[in-house]
Design a protein that fits this description.
Layout (H helix, E strand, L loop, with lengths): L3 E6 L3 H23 L2 E5 L6 H7 L9 E5 L1 E3 L9 H9 L5 E2 L10 H12 L8 E4 L16 H6 L6 E4 L12 E4 L1 H5 L4 E6 L1 H13 L6 H6 L5 E7 L1
Parallel strand pairs: 1-10, 2-3, 2-6, 3-5, 6-9, 9-10
Antiparallel strand pairs: 4-8, 7-8
This protein binds the ligand O=C1O[C@H](COP(=O)(O)O)[C@@H](O)[C@H](O)[C@H]1O.
The ligand O=C1O[C@H](COP(=O)(O)O)[C@@H](O)[C@H](O)[C@H]1O binds next to strand 4.
Function: Hydrolysis of 6-phosphogluconolactone to 6-phosphogluconate.
Enzyme class: hydrolase
InterPro entries: 6-phosphogluconolactonase_DevB, 6PGL, Glc/Gal-6P_isomerase, NagB/RpiA_transferase-like
Amino acid sequence: MTTEIEWWEYDDAAELADAVAGDIQFVIESAIDARGSAVIALAGGKTPLPAYAKLAQAKLDWKRVTIIPSDERIVPLGDALSNVTALGKTFIPKGARVMPIVPKATDDYKTAGRSADALMQDLHWPLDLCVLGVGGDGHTASIFTGPDYDEALNGPRERRALGVMPDPLPPEAPVARVTLSRAGIITARALLIAVTGDAKRKVIEDAISEGAGSPYPIGRVLADVELPVDIHWAP
Ligand SMILES: O=C1O[C@H](COP(=O)(O)O)[C@@H](O)[C@H](O)[C@H]1O
């Protein structure tokens, strides 16, 4: 397989949401047809929420669908910052299995990461799809610069999740995280990135052209990947 990064552009966020929801639905249907079930990782944050709301309207055999967050902020379940809480509100009523990767808040983010990695062993791998967002600082999932950056990018292939302390802490959610590792992300069957705004577009374009030498986590994650990557963008 070779790297194939394709950009998809839309006029506005509503069009982006329709397209992203349609693509995720297609992956889920194909996986259920092929293997009887689908396992996907979905980005947290705010950008993809309209796409998830559209996806939840799709007629799917939801009880065959397992969803994990691509990353989690280490906060109690139910907290406004909790990625899995947002996913659960949307997809649990449909019958999907939405799996928290950080079942309870803790001060020990490294242990939380090891527990999440252990939970991953219970899932069918590879993921059928990994949906990622990108922050204005170039982070993706919760792969941030900081003391755990190298482990997130270059840790053992079998370590699919780990604990991360971003440095600097992102102002919109200044907490420790658990994230899929680069290895966990790039072993998915497909990668879908959903972003809005000119600033994030520029970050991603720069990151892709810089490749493995990029100062941006998204550049380091995408460098030399061997899976299809679709980047969906709207202003
Ligand atoms: O902190 C996070 O940020 C990114 C981007 O979020 P957005 O709100 O700017 O779309 C997100 O993809 C990630 O899952 C989340 O934990």
